[in-house]
Protein backbone atom coordinates (compact mmCIF):
# COMPACT_ATOMS: atom_id res chain seq x y z
CA UNK A 1 0.00 0.00 0.00
CA UNK A 2 1.95 2.99 -1.30
CA UNK A 3 0.39 6.42 -0.71
CA UNK A 4 0.56 8.83 -3.65
CA UNK A 5 -2.71 10.76 -3.41
CA UNK A 6 -4.55 11.72 -0.20
CA UNK A 7 -7.96 13.32 0.29
CA UNK A 8 -8.31 15.33 3.51
CA UNK A 9 -12.00 15.98 4.20
CA UNK A 10 -11.49 19.53 5.44
CA UNK A 11 -11.37 22.96 3.79
CA UNK A 12 -8.07 23.91 2.19
CA UNK A 13 -5.72 25.53 4.78
CA UNK A 14 -5.63 29.32 4.58
CA UNK A 15 -1.96 29.41 5.56
CA UNK A 16 0.86 28.24 3.32
CA UNK A 17 2.61 27.07 6.48
CA UNK A 18 0.19 24.18 6.96
CA UNK A 19 1.98 20.96 7.97
CA UNK A 20 0.01 19.16 5.23
CA UNK A 21 1.99 21.08 2.60
CA UNK A 22 5.23 20.05 4.32
CA UNK A 23 4.15 16.40 4.15
CA UNK A 24 3.26 16.69 0.45
CA UNK A 25 6.68 18.14 -0.35
CA UNK A 26 8.59 15.79 1.96
CA UNK A 27 7.16 12.58 0.49
CA UNK A 28 6.18 13.74 -3.01
CA UNK A 29 2.50 12.98 -2.45
CA UNK A 30 -0.53 14.93 -3.68
CA UNK A 31 -2.90 16.12 -0.94
CA UNK A 32 -6.33 17.41 -1.92
CA UNK A 33 -8.73 19.17 0.46
CA UNK A 34 -12.41 18.54 -0.04
CA UNK A 35 -15.01 18.70 2.78
CA UNK A 36 -17.55 15.87 2.69
CA UNK A 37 -19.96 17.92 4.79
CA UNK A 38 -21.07 21.53 4.96
CA UNK A 39 -23.02 23.58 7.46
CA UNK A 40 -26.05 25.54 6.31
CA UNK A 41 -28.57 27.82 8.00
CA UNK A 42 -32.17 26.87 8.56
CA UNK A 43 -34.52 29.00 6.50
CA UNK A 44 -36.59 31.66 8.26
CA UNK A 45 -39.67 29.49 7.64
CA UNK A 46 -38.02 26.45 9.27
CA UNK A 47 -36.86 28.50 12.24
CA UNK A 48 -40.33 29.99 12.81
CA UNK A 49 -41.73 26.47 13.21
CA UNK A 50 -39.85 26.28 16.53
CA UNK A 51 -41.98 29.19 17.79
CA UNK A 52 -38.98 30.90 19.39
CA UNK A 53 -38.79 34.68 19.68
CA UNK A 54 -35.17 35.85 19.62
CA UNK A 55 -36.07 39.19 21.20
CA UNK A 56 -37.61 37.46 24.23
CA UNK A 57 -34.02 36.79 25.30
CA UNK A 58 -31.45 39.09 26.89
CA UNK A 59 -28.31 37.04 26.21
CA UNK A 60 -26.99 34.68 23.51
CA UNK A 61 -24.57 31.82 24.14
CA UNK A 62 -22.14 30.91 21.37
CA UNK A 63 -20.19 27.64 21.35
CA UNK A 64 -18.66 28.02 17.87
CA UNK A 65 -18.07 30.39 14.97
CA UNK A 66 -20.73 28.48 13.05
CA UNK A 67 -23.24 29.43 15.74
CA UNK A 68 -22.31 33.12 15.38
CA UNK A 69 -22.52 33.09 11.56
CA UNK A 70 -25.89 31.38 11.44
CA UNK A 71 -27.41 33.36 14.31
CA UNK A 72 -26.72 36.69 12.64
CA UNK A 73 -27.64 35.32 9.21
CA UNK A 74 -31.03 34.20 10.50
CA UNK A 75 -31.58 37.51 12.31
CA UNK A 76 -31.03 39.29 8.99
CA UNK A 77 -33.42 36.98 7.17
CA UNK A 78 -36.02 37.36 9.93
CA UNK A 79 -35.46 41.14 9.96
CA UNK A 80 -34.75 41.01 13.67
CA UNK A 81 -32.71 43.97 14.97
CA UNK A 82 -30.59 42.92 17.95
CA UNK A 83 -30.78 45.56 20.72
CA UNK A 84 -27.68 47.26 22.09
CA UNK A 85 -28.43 45.72 25.48
CA UNK A 86 -27.98 42.11 24.27
CA UNK A 87 -25.22 40.22 26.10
CA UNK A 88 -23.04 37.55 24.54
CA UNK A 89 -21.51 34.57 26.34
CA UNK A 90 -18.86 32.54 24.49
CA UNK A 91 -17.02 29.36 25.36
CA UNK A 92 -13.64 30.88 24.40
CA UNK A 93 -11.98 34.24 23.76
CA UNK A 94 -11.39 33.27 20.10
CA UNK A 95 -15.12 32.82 19.57
CA UNK A 96 -15.83 36.05 21.47
CA UNK A 97 -13.48 38.02 19.22
CA UNK A 98 -15.21 36.58 16.14
CA UNK A 99 -18.37 38.48 17.13
CA UNK A 100 -16.60 41.62 15.88
CA UNK A 101 -17.46 40.44 12.38
CA UNK A 102 -21.08 41.36 13.14
CA UNK A 103 -21.20 43.85 16.02
CA UNK A 104 -19.01 46.54 17.52
CA UNK A 105 -17.24 44.56 20.22
CA UNK A 106 -16.61 47.38 22.72
CA UNK A 107 -20.20 48.55 22.76
CA UNK A 108 -21.57 45.15 23.60
CA UNK A 109 -21.33 43.12 26.76
CA UNK A 110 -19.24 40.08 25.86
CA UNK A 111 -18.19 37.35 28.29
CA UNK A 112 -16.09 34.25 27.63
CA UNK A 113 -14.81 31.15 29.37
CA UNK A 114 -11.13 30.38 29.89
CA UNK A 115 -10.90 26.79 28.64
CA UNK A 116 -13.27 26.48 25.69
CA UNK A 117 -15.40 23.95 27.57
CA UNK A 118 -19.06 24.76 28.05
CA UNK A 119 -18.99 23.57 31.66
CA UNK A 120 -16.48 26.30 32.50
CA UNK A 121 -18.77 28.98 31.07
CA UNK A 122 -21.69 27.99 33.31
CA UNK A 123 -20.41 29.70 36.53
CA UNK A 124 -20.21 32.96 34.57
CA UNK A 125 -23.80 32.47 33.41
CA UNK A 126 -24.90 31.73 36.97
CA UNK A 127 -23.45 35.10 38.05
CA UNK A 128 -25.80 36.66 35.48
CA UNK A 129 -28.70 34.51 36.61
CA UNK A 130 -31.34 37.09 35.71
CA UNK A 131 -30.67 36.78 31.99
CA UNK A 132 -32.86 34.85 29.56
CA UNK A 133 -30.35 32.87 27.50
CA UNK A 134 -30.75 31.81 23.87
CA UNK A 135 -28.51 28.90 22.74
CA UNK A 136 -28.08 28.64 18.93
CA UNK A 137 -27.43 24.97 18.09
CA UNK A 138 -26.91 22.50 15.27
CA UNK A 139 -29.61 19.97 14.42
CA UNK A 140 -27.18 17.31 15.70
CA UNK A 141 -26.19 17.94 19.32
CA UNK A 142 -26.01 16.13 22.62
CA UNK A 143 -27.82 17.03 25.84
CA UNK A 144 -24.73 18.23 27.74
CA UNK A 145 -25.65 21.93 27.43
CA UNK A 146 -29.31 21.42 28.37
CA UNK A 147 -28.42 19.18 31.34
CA UNK A 148 -25.84 21.63 32.72
CA UNK A 149 -28.17 24.62 32.42
CA UNK A 150 -31.15 22.76 33.87
CA UNK A 151 -28.99 21.56 36.78
CA UNK A 152 -27.96 25.15 37.54
CA UNK A 153 -31.53 26.42 37.05
CA UNK A 154 -30.49 28.82 34.30
CA UNK A 155 -33.41 30.09 32.23
CA UNK A 156 -32.64 29.25 28.61
CA UNK A 157 -34.02 28.27 25.20
CA UNK A 158 -32.24 25.94 22.80
CA UNK A 159 -32.74 27.03 19.20
CA UNK A 160 -31.73 24.92 16.21
CA UNK A 161 -30.35 27.44 13.71
CA UNK A 162 -28.07 25.40 11.42
CA UNK A 163 -27.50 21.85 10.26
CA UNK A 164 -24.79 19.63 8.86
CA UNK A 165 -25.50 18.21 5.39
CA UNK A 166 -23.64 16.11 2.87
CA UNK A 167 -21.44 18.14 0.51
CA UNK A 168 -22.28 16.07 -2.55
CA UNK A 169 -19.74 15.22 -5.24
CA UNK A 170 -20.50 16.07 -8.85
CA UNK A 171 -20.14 13.48 -11.64
CA UNK A 172 -17.19 15.49 -12.99
CA UNK A 173 -15.20 15.20 -9.77
CA UNK A 174 -12.54 12.51 -9.85
CA UNK A 175 -12.41 10.20 -6.86
CA UNK A 176 -9.20 8.24 -7.18
CA UNK A 177 -7.29 8.35 -3.90
CA UNK A 178 -4.95 6.03 -2.05
CA UNK A 179 -6.06 7.44 1.30
CA UNK A 180 -9.10 9.21 2.76
CA UNK A 181 -9.02 11.14 6.04
CA UNK A 182 -12.14 11.92 8.06
CA UNK A 183 -12.83 14.13 11.08
CA UNK A 184 -16.48 13.41 11.91
CA UNK A 185 -19.10 10.64 11.67
CA UNK A 186 -21.05 12.90 9.28
CA UNK A 187 -18.11 12.70 6.87
CA UNK A 188 -18.40 8.91 6.79
CA UNK A 189 -22.16 9.15 6.23
CA UNK A 190 -21.50 11.52 3.32
CA UNK A 191 -18.98 9.08 1.80
CA UNK A 192 -21.56 6.27 1.84
CA UNK A 193 -24.28 8.59 0.48
CA UNK A 194 -22.11 9.83 -2.39
CA UNK A 195 -20.66 6.43 -3.20
CA UNK A 196 -23.21 3.75 -2.17
CA UNK A 197 -21.18 1.08 -3.96
CA UNK A 198 -17.90 2.17 -2.40
CA UNK A 199 -15.36 -0.65 -2.15
CA UNK A 200 -12.38 0.12 0.04
CA UNK A 201 -9.92 -2.49 -1.31
CA UNK A 202 -6.43 -0.95 -0.93
CA UNK A 203 -7.66 2.55 -0.04
CA UNK A 204 -6.38 3.52 3.41
CA UNK A 205 -8.78 5.32 5.75
CA UNK A 206 -7.69 7.58 8.61
CA UNK A 207 -9.88 9.10 11.29
CA UNK A 208 -9.54 11.76 13.98
CA UNK A 209 -11.29 11.20 17.30
CA UNK A 210 -13.00 8.16 18.81
CA UNK A 211 -16.50 8.87 17.44
CA UNK A 212 -15.17 9.10 13.88
CA UNK A 213 -13.18 5.89 14.34
CA UNK A 214 -16.35 4.14 15.52
CA UNK A 215 -18.30 5.46 12.51
CA UNK A 216 -15.66 4.03 10.14
CA UNK A 217 -15.95 0.59 11.73
CA UNK A 218 -19.76 0.77 11.97
CA UNK A 219 -19.85 1.42 8.21
CA UNK A 220 -18.02 -1.86 7.70
CA UNK A 221 -14.81 -0.15 6.59
CA UNK A 222 -11.23 -0.89 7.58
CA UNK A 223 -9.58 1.74 9.76
CA UNK A 224 -5.89 2.04 8.88
CA UNK A 225 -4.92 5.16 10.80
CA UNK A 226 -6.38 6.51 14.04
CA UNK A 227 -5.45 9.82 15.66
CA UNK A 228 -4.76 11.37 18.07
CA UNK A 229 -2.28 9.17 19.88
CA UNK A 230 0.50 9.91 22.36
CA UNK A 231 3.01 9.58 19.51
CA UNK A 232 0.93 11.64 17.07
CA UNK A 233 -1.29 14.23 18.81
CA UNK A 234 -2.46 15.73 15.50
CA UNK A 235 -3.66 14.33 12.19
CA UNK A 236 -0.71 15.80 10.22
CA UNK A 237 1.71 14.13 12.66
CA UNK A 238 -0.14 10.81 12.32
CA UNK A 239 -0.26 11.12 8.52
CA UNK A 240 3.47 11.87 8.40
CA UNK A 241 4.25 8.69 10.33
CA UNK A 242 1.85 6.60 8.25
CA UNK A 243 3.26 7.72 4.88
CA UNK A 244 6.84 7.32 6.11
CA UNK A 245 6.06 3.73 7.10
CA UNK A 246 4.19 2.76 3.93
CA UNK A 247 6.27 4.59 1.32
CA UNK A 248 9.60 3.04 2.26
UniProtKB/TrEMBL annotation:
<dbReference type="GO" id="GO:0004852">
    <property type="term" value="F:uroporphyrinogen-III synthase activity"/>
</dbReference>
<dbReference type="InterPro" id="IPR039793">
    <property type="entry name" value="UROS/Hem4"/>
</dbReference>
<dbReference type="Pfam" id="PF02602">
    <property type="entry name" value="HEM4"/>
</dbReference>
<protein>
    <submittedName>
        <fullName>Uroporphyrinogen-III synthase</fullName>
        <ecNumber>4.2.1.75</ecNumber>
    </submittedName>
</protein>
<keyword id="KW-0456">Lyase</keyword>
<feature type="domain" description="Tetrapyrrole biosynthesis uroporphyrinogen III synthase">
    <location>
        <begin position="24"/>
        <end position="235"/>
    </location>
</feature>
<dbReference type="InterPro" id="IPR003754">
    <property type="entry name" value="4pyrrol_synth_uPrphyn_synth"/>
</dbReference>
<dbReference type="InterPro" id="IPR036108">
    <property type="entry name" value="4pyrrol_syn_uPrphyn_synt_sf"/>
</dbReference>
